[in-house]
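[job 4471] stage=fold_predict status=RUNNING
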Amino acid sequence: MKKLSIYFVLIGLVVLLFFTIVIGVSVGTLRIPFEQTYTIFVEKLLNLEPTNVTYSGVVWKIRMPRVLMGVVVGAGLSLCGIIMQAVVQNPLAEPFLLGISAGGYLGATMFIILGSGILGIVSGFGLAFTAFIGALSAAICVLFLSSFRSSMTTTKLILSGTIVNALFTAIANFIIVFSGTDNTIARVTYWTMGSLSSAKWDNLLLPAIAVCLVTIYFSTQYRTLNAMLQGEEIAITLGIRLNFYRKVYTILVALLTGILVATCGIIGFVGLVIPHISRALVGPDHRKLIPVAVLIGSTFLVAVDILARTLIENNELPIGIFTAIVGAPFFAFIIIRKDYQFKE
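[job 4471] inference complete, writing structure tokens
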């Protein structure tokens, strides 16, 4: 596929994201006309009194935080997918597939069940902190298993991720069954399917800051990421401290994944699908790939969330269902295209 001009792609994606945001705050149980949404934006920017208090309240208090959370989470998950694929040099890598999301799920479950005890001393950031610890633990386990007594291979990496994913999920479910109450079980069930329904202005700040800072940092790391993607020998030849950067990048991805999982639960396959779509548009150069993937990921998740809360009238479906419906066939397509073999 012929690669498009990066400037043309970025401008087009920004415009597409803007229109997706407008649609996102306009549709729902209460449908707001687009011209009214535009008027509400103008009134807010100019600090004017709202002409329609009901519409303005729905847009700014309910839908805008949710749409912006979709923008932030979509960008963060896409970035995590790109970084993990470069770190392990595997086009099938992403936090969900490698068990990192399951680690975050376990950490969040432990905080929800035990949060009123010792972990309560870090209330406020406690949920994000425990999700980060769980995500980091899962990442370390996967890297250890896939490189134990031999070099890391694609098959070992995927199998290690599957093992860690199953183990951490099983432990979380065990804790829920034996320690959970009706309320905590219902709350934890939310994490397993992913949702943006809890998005508020109050809990938007932390993931937004985390995604912005990590995106800025990795945007400066494009040379190292490009070298990693070319293979270990080339990276070492260029004088890159491969093990050092692998650890730093993995910790940052685990941190970001933990914060996102703590905010909206497990939303799989975004980190797998979006990087490949982005590479098809602008190629593998991370200087172009990162901003493009961030914009596509944001647009994708906002669009999927619109579908999840409007497909069935007066009933909202978990967003993780729709990302899996899109991601699972795409995952199978990649395996077929890459001539995946069980034995090397």
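[job 4471] summary: Residues 65 and 200 are 5 Å apart (CA to CA).
[job 4471] exit 0
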